[in-house]
Amino acid sequence: MTETIQIGEISIQVTRKAIKNVHLSVHPPDGRVTLVAPSATRLDVARAYVISKLVWIRQQQQKLRGQARETPRRFIERESHHIWGRRHLMTIKHAHAKPCVRLDHKRITLTVRPGADAKKRAEVIHEWHKSLLHEIVPAIIKKWQPKLKVHVSSYFLQRMKTKWGSCNHKAGHIRLNTELVKKPKDLLEYVIVHEMAHLLEPTHSERFITILQKHYPSWREARAELNELPLSAEAWRG
Question: Are 105 and 120 in contact (CB under 8 A)?
Answer without folding.
Answer: no
